[in-house]
Each structure stands twice: as structure tokens, then as C-alpha cells.
Amino acid sequence: MRLAALVSLRAAVFFLALLLVSPAVAHNDHGVHKNYLIIVRTPYEYDRSMFKDVSDWHASLLASVCDMAEEELDKDPAAMARLIYSYRHVVNGFSARLTVEEIREMAGKDWFVKAIPEKTYRLMTTHTPQMLGLNGKGSHGGLWNKSNMGEGIIIGVLDDGISPGHPSFDGTGVPPPPAKWKGRCDFNSSVCNDKLIGARSFYESAKWKFQGVDDPVLPVSKGSHGTHTSSTAAGAFVPGANVMGNGIGTATGMAPRAHIALYQVCFEDKGCDRDDILAALDDAVDEGVDVLSLSLGDDEAGDFAYDPIALGGYTAIMKGIFVSAAGGNMGPDPATVANEAPWLLTVAAATTDRRFVASVRLGNGVELDGESLFQPEGFLSVPRPLVRDLSDGTCSDEKVLTPEHVGGKIVVCDAGGNFTSLEMGAALREGGAAGMVVITIEEFGSVIQPKAHALPASQVTYSTGQKIRAYMNSTDIPTGELIFKGTVLGNRDSPVVAAFSSRGPSKQNQGILKPDITGPGVNIIAGVPKPAGFMTPPNPLAAKFDVLSGTSMATPHLSGIAAVLKKAHPTWTPAAIKSAIITTADPKDRRGKPIAAHDGYPANLLTLGAGFVEPMKALSPGLVYNLTAFDYIPYLCGLRYTDHEINSIIHPLPPVSCAQMAVVEQKDLNYPSITAFLDQEPFVVNVTRVVTNVGRAISVYVAKVEVPSTVSVTVTPEMLLFKKVNEAKRFTVTIRSMDTSIQEGIAEGQLAWVSPKNVVRTPILVSFKKFVKDNSTTAHLRH
User: Fold this and answer.
1) What pLDDT does 702 receive?
2) What SUPFAM superfamilies does UniProt report for this protein, alphabetically (predicted)?
């Protein structure tokens, strides 16, 4: 059998694994084999007449390096297994098992561009539809009413697997997928349905790195991540969903009538292999998905030419597929944002207005709010002795958590020790403690991520913890009591950007504001195989849902929102949908004040992006900043990518040459935000943009600028008159420093195009010096 046939038949993977014991025959096949992504210079089309398909062609390239003829490849099973993936869409190349000596020989071939060593990526790890106005009441209804809840839209989720048979994936009432769908669902018919239409596992590359781990037959995961993200994006309605009896309501995804296609590329604690991600994206863009939801990434920003999410994302938007990607969980340090490519929607995470309140009433009568997912019924709230942990304060040493010290008492513990908060509670319960107060680490600020503890407990912020400690120091016999108030909605101090949410500026394209948008990503209730914690769920549905936090949780919110917007506006490009989301975002909280970061200071644009997503406003944005896949090519030239690198990114488009086109600077990419650098004389920058009318045919927009006194912004023209839908208008924004002595820091503002029906808000970020990649030099950008 030819190599290409074996590669294309994923059902033969187990057979190939058995054959790996055969010795290799390649002359260079004596070193250590490692996985490499091989970028190829010549498009397959140049040699199409000689090979039956792209896999056959890649096999011939591999044979030319391994010193063996194709006939030998056919005969030697070990050699056949050297080719891991042959990519058709997202990159011009293949992944294979090679030695260093073979890579050196390959470098001399005229078809070779680059060999990239293996790399592992990782996951960025109810009430929100109501909070976001998706199910709005009244004569106008919510976005669901305008889009039929995303019916017919297919959301592709790349993650760590799924919990088969979960109620969030019930297909009852969901129509069949559209005829364009070419994917498959590897579960049986009792699991695969009109909701979960695709489920596959991609493990060809990862299995080589983790010897002894079987190739999974089905994309099942004991972890919670993939089930949680999939059900957040497009989960079905599940009445009575709750977490340990809290947050009881109807759980649903953002697009409850959309279809889900799950591509498993991450495995337990093994991470997510780059080549498996590329293979999944290669198939997903060809199988008919409309939206891609990527709650994974790399903390170290890589070139767009070699990053699987950037590569796959470009091919996706070229095919009209919207891509939402997690911004990362490496905050609050600046310049940590992941998934920075401008064709991706990069998502930050913030709190919702829901809390699971567990208060601490001190002996002096002061009552301080905390949170806990374990809200015991019938708990007797009476004053009890309040004591410290006798070791290092973290309640991580079971030797001192004895009945003599903690029995019948409420123990105050600092987070951050060797035990998780769940393990602290378990150890204290064994010691006979009556309760626990966990003081969150200072870096988390005002954001609490409550757990289902093994005993009555309250998790409090660091600042609240210091008040508790001050009280304990003020009296010889400190006492406290725990008061459980259940689920409380309507917190006016929300949203707040989480400390973990990665911050800009972008390292790869500093002239593009990243992250783009903030969504709900803290304490999100969604489906899981099994909730975390040591307590027995109080009801059957409590065993199916849990809260998780991360930009991983924020991302599927935006993916689902994009799905319903795409349903409502099927002709919009991915850039138009992104523009609608960004220009209608809200930079203010429920009090009407600027959204805060975790530390209480106003969140800047590098933390928040344009603001918190407002789906109903995004339905009718008035104007959009549009871009096609081709528009990014001169921009990539401006970033000084080589022709070979750009052709790798834009594959399978025909090759281009930057020398034959006008370069577009970062500031002039038609993006729905503006970033300008006033770091050199004459300290003036002109920025051009084009907006397209997607609102009323005849409409007038007037420019309104809000910026600090350190800069001046003028817009030419100041008024835009549209006479028809889809008419485009160009304008120029001139940004000038008003104080040339300023040599660092940033200034923030906005340009709003205002009509009687719409406010099209474009964030403006001005930096007085170039950002650099070293985090230590961007400390002034922290908030």
C-alpha cells in the first residue's frame, strides 16, 4: 500500500502503531528522531501532474531526504510512519519524524524553507446569556430572537475532549446540520446527534512525544475543559443546572441552536501538540465550520508564519470562518497576551455580576463578604473561636492541624501554600475544624474564584483578609461566624478584569491593540464530566456542572456570540463581525464608571481591549471596519516578513512578492481600533481608516473625539454622509503630541462616529515610545 493511502486513512492508525517495531532502512536514520514541521517552498500545484495527491507529494519529499526510494517507503512500515501529517490548507508543508542529520540534508533541497522543532501549547484555562442580553425581553427582544439562536451555524471547538452524553449536548429540537458539513462524529448514534455533529481526536504527533500512551479511540476527556468550553459556546438548554446547589437556573450556550464539532488536540496533562493543532485546523476549515473557538495558545508569542493558530486562523478567515482565541492567562504582567494575529479576535476575561456569597462576621460586629461554592443547608451561624494556622499560615502542614488546635474552630489560612484550597479544607475537616477562611493571594486583587470546599468556608480577598488579621491582633479571644447567603446577582462593581487575564501590548504587532475584547471569564457555570471538590453533589444535575475561570471561558462566549451574529448577518465577513463586536463594546461597569482591573484601578486598553462585549448592540453597529484576507498581505510586508514567510501564512493563495506591492503600516491596517506612536519628531501621526455602512441606507455620522490634554486628535472629514447600504467612506485621523517633553507612558481616548441611531466607538491608544518585548520595561502599562 502506498504511504499516501495510509496517511489518509485514520482508521489505520492502530495498525501503523503495531508496525513501528520494524527497523528503519534510511542511511541517516541513526540519530534521535523528533517531530518537525517542515515548511515547503514550492506549492503542490507545481508538481500536481506527477503525484496523485498532496500526501503522495510530501512522501516523495521525505523520501528524497531519508535516502530511500518511494518503493522502500511502501515496503518499510517504520518508514511509512515517519510522515505524521500532510497539510492541505493551513500551511504549505508537512510534519514528520526526523533526525538532526536529515534536517541538515533537507536544508540543501531547493523545495525547503524551514524546519521547526516540536512545540507544545496549552489550554487557557447559566447566568451569562441573561447578563449579556441575549434573551432580552420586551418588544425588540434579544439577539437570540433576531438570529434564531444561531440555528444552522457550526462552531468548531479545538480542546481536550468532551463528555459524551452530557445534557448540554442533547440534540432534541435542533435541526440537522447544513448540507455543506463534511465532518464526522466518532461516537455512536446515542451520543452523536444534531447538536454534537463532529467529534474527532488528533494525536498522531503527540503520541510520539509521550511513548506508552495509547492513541485515543474516541475524543473523550476526564478533564472538564472541552466540555465546559463547548457547552458555553453552544450548549443546549438544561433547566435546573447548578453547582453544588448554587446558581440554579437554565444553563445554555451563547448559541443554543448552533451545532458543535469537537476536535480533540489536547490530552490531560500532556498539553496540545502544535502539529496536531495544525492537522485539526486543516480539517476543520475544509469540513464546513462557520466559527472556530480556540481556548488554547502559547505563552511565548511566535511568528505568525510558524504559529498554528495564526496559520490556521488566516486560512479560516480566507474561507469566511470567524476565529475567536483566548488571550492567555499570564496576567497581570504587560506584554503577555497570546494569539495576537490581527485576523483573530483575541479575548480577555472579566467577572460577571454573580457571586456565591459567604460572609465572615467578626466578634466586633463587622461583616465582611467572601465567596464559597459550598453553602451548607442548616449550618448554625454562631460565633466560634477564630485561629491562625500554627505553621506558615497556609494550612499545608497536617501535623499541626490537630483537634487540639483546630477542633471546633474557624481557621484562617493564606492561599499559595503546598495545598490547594480544596486540600486545605480536607485537612482541616480531618482535624475537626468547624470552618475555614481562605485569604486569596494579593496579586488576585478583588477577584475570587470560589471552590466547593470540604467544610464550611469563605474565600476572601487579600485586603479583606488583612482586616480579619487586624481584628485578630486587636483582641485576646477573636471570634467569627460564617454566614452563607447563596447566589447573589446584580453586583454593581462588575465587570472587573481578572488578574490572570494576559495584558498587551502585542509583541508581534505592536501597532495593533490586543486584546481586542473582554468577555465573561470568571466563575462561569457550564457543563463538565464531574465537578471538582470532595463534596457529594446535592442533586443529579450538580454532578454535571461546575465553575471554571480563564480566558478559556471567555473565548467560547465570544465564539457563540459571533455565531448568532453570523446567523443574523450571513454576508458579513469575519472582519465585519469582529468590528461590530469591538466598536459596540462597553468600557464602563454597571455603575457607569470605567471598568476596573483586579487591583481597583481603571483597566487600560492593553488590559481590557475595547471593553466588555455587548451582543445586542453588536447586532446593529451602524458602521464596520471591513477587511478581506488579501488586505493583510501588504500589512505583513510592513512587518518585514520575508516573501517565503508570507506565502507560508497565506497558503493556499498564489505566491506574492512584497517588492511588487505597496506596504501598509500597522497603524493604517483598517482595524476597529487605533494605535499610534509619538516617539519621534515631528510627533505627529496620520492614520487612515475606511468604514462601511451596514445600517440605515441614508445616514449621517459626526465625529466626536475624547482624548486627554497631552494629545490632540483631529478627524478629516468630521462628517460622513451615506446614501446607501454597503457604501464605504475614507477618513483620516491626525494625532499630535501637545507636550513633546513626554517621553514614555500612554494616552487613551476614543473616536466615536455618532448618528441618531448608533455610536461607533473606536478606541485610540497613543504611546510616547515604542513598546519593547521585555516585560520589565513596560511596567508603566500595568493597569
Assistant:
1) 98
2) Subtilisin-like
Could you please report the per-residue DSSP string of 392-454? SSSS--TTT--HHHHBTSEEEEESSSSS-HHHHHHHHHHTTBSEEEEEPPGGGTT-------S
* Separation CA 474–CA 468 (nearest Å): 10
Contact by Cβ (8 Å): 637, 302: no
Q: Are 218 and 154 spatial neighbours (Cβ–Cβ below 8 Å)?
A: no
CA distance 93 to 364: 69
C-alpha cell at 183: 465532518
pLDDT of the residue at 153 = 96
DSSP code at position 169: G
Work out the angle between the directed axes of helices 225-234 and 551-568 (0-180°, nearest 10).
30
Give the 3-state secondary structure of residue 378: coil
Name the architecture of domain 623-627+670-767. Answer: Sandwich (2.60)
Structural domain boundaries in the chain: 34-117, 128-352+496-615, 354-489, 623-627+670-767
Predicted pLDDT at 131 = 58
**Per-residue confidence (pLDDT) for residue 136, from 0 to 100:** 55
Q: Is 73 left (phi over 0), alpha (psi -120 to 50) or beta?
A: alpha
Q: What is the pLDDT of residue 224?
A: 92
Confidence at residue 53, expressed as pLDDT on a 0 to 100 scale: 86
Which residue ranges in the chain fall short of pLDDT 70?
Answer: 1-30, 44-48, 67-81, 125-147, 208-217, 301, 772-783
β-pair partners for 526? 546
Handedness of CA 755, 350, 775, 273 (dihedral sign): negative
| pLDDT score of 653 | 86
Please answer whether residues 662 and 688 qualify as being in contact, where contact means their C-beta atoms are separated by less than 8 angstroms. no
CA 383 from chain centre, in angstroms, equals 44
Strands (E) located in 124-195: 154-159
Q: Which helix (H) or strand (E) holds 14?
A: helix 13-19
* 92-110 exposure pattern, b = at least 16 Cβ within 10 A, e = fewer: bbbbbbbbeebbebbeeee
* Phi and psi angles of residue 323, each rounded to the nearest 5 degrees, phi first: -125, 120
Q: At what angle do helices 308-318 and 574-583 cross, to 10 degrees?
A: 110
| Residue 578 phi, psi (nearest 5) | -60, -45
Distance separating alpha carbons of residues 296 and 574, to the nearest angstrom? 20
The whole-number pLDDT of residue 214 equals 57
Q: What is the pLDDT of residue 210?
A: 61
Residue 143: its pLDDT value, please?
A: 66
CA distances from 590 to 350, 444, 493 (A): 13, 21, 7
User: What are the catalytic residues?
Assistant: 159, 225, 552
pLDDT value of position 151? 87
Q: Return the C-alpha cell found at 173.
A: 429540537
CA atoms lying within 13 Å on the CB side of residue 326: 32
Q: Do residues 67 and 27 touch, judged by C-beta distance below 8 A?
A: yes
Helices (H), 267-377: 274-287, 308-318
52 three-state secondary structure: coil
The DSSP secondary-structure symbol of 488 reads E
Kindly report, residue by residue over 630-657, the tens digit of the pLDDT: 999 999 999 999 999 999 999 888 899 9
State residue 146's pLDDT score.
64
Contact by Cβ (8 Å): 689, 625: yes
Name the one residue in this structure whose C-alpha cell is 518585514. Answer: 640
Contact by Cβ (8 Å): 460, 559: no
Can you give the pLDDT at residue 772? 62
Fold adopted by 128-352+496-615: Rossmann fold (3.40.50)
Name the residue type at position 515: P
Which residues, in sequence order, are CB contacts of 592 under 8 Å at separation 6+? Answer: none
Nine-digit cell string for 208: 510520539
| Pure H helices in 446-550 | 462-473
The yes/no answer on whether domain 354-489 falls in CATH 3.40.50.800 is: no
Distance CA 529, CA 490 (A): 29
Which SS3 state, helix, strand or coil, does residue 481 take? strand
